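Minutes, project check-in
Item: structure for the 372-residue chain
Input as provided by the requester:
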Amino acid sequence: MPESMQAQNRVELLHDGDACFSALLGAIEAAQREILLEMYWFGSDATGRRFASALAQKARDGVRVCITYDAAGSFGVDGAMFDGLRRAGAGVYEYRPVRMLLGRINLAAFNRRNHRKILVLDGRLGFTGGVNLADPWASVAAGGLGFRDDMIAIEGPAVTDMRDIFLATYRGRHRDDALREKMDGAGASGTAPVRVLATDARQKRRLIERSYLQQIRSARERILITNSYFIPSLTVRHALAQAAKRGVIVRVLLPVESDVPAVTYATRAQYGYMLRKGIELYEWSQSILHSKTAVIDGRWCTVGTYNLDYRSLAFNLEINVVVEDTHVAAKLEARMQRDMDASVRVDAHGWRFRPLGQRVLELFFYLFRKLL
């Protein structure tokens, strides 16, 4: 998997579903040769069908359209939607179908999921981040749940790495053609150095965590992290505590309510330790927080699909984009700080006196953190 720094990229940050959907659909409409889409949750709701319709039209127009969707992430989706895409000429690949073996689900296979969200167009423009193609990310006004999330758009040499990451997993009908053809549209487009990090479930499963750790351990001023499923390893937790001990401002934004309630309890089981170590915790309550971003010392930032939890570390295919550019980092930091200002800081004294029932649930779900 590619993981080297690529210079001279143009980078744009996108926030929340409606803005992200608009940018993605606009890019799909403008594509002329190739559209590569890798998606954990491709819904058959209004949002998903909107994208399916746009992709089918491009396939009918002669654009090569290749789609990978995760079978578990898209569980329960109407298969007729994907059949329609195939009839239009798109290649559609279901990642790790959920099958029964001797009357039982193969849990080992079921556990290893493709959690990436990637869109690459004509080999020159790429998107990734936390946003899935489903109604929860649409605004409430548009009939969705208004999930708080982020994506990043890249134009430049780093897009070639994103394309290679897609092709390494794709097994659809256009696979051979896609592998043979090298797109020539990913030339220098800006000034930002970008590194694309992709993990798999075996050889490079710690790649993104190591990137986090390297930056956390070298931080001198401030660390801002937003993470929707935050159950970090002991190594990451200790690194954050050591950073706070040496005087670094460490702030973590978390959801007050998760779309996976068990994760909320498992996350809160760690609050006491982090608060004692001087780590500032903030809880976002305006909607479901699904973002996975970080900024360190105003010079290094990352946007992607990787959660600081055991599932992202050990089981999932993930992708994060790292940008080493003070201008991009400043923009992302301003948005993260704005979100923290709109959130509630967890009070260390008050936390010690939370109800006993809550403590029991926290400890119970923390015991099962590797399964969440």
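Outcome recorded: The two ends are 27 Å apart (CA to CA).
No further action items on this chain.
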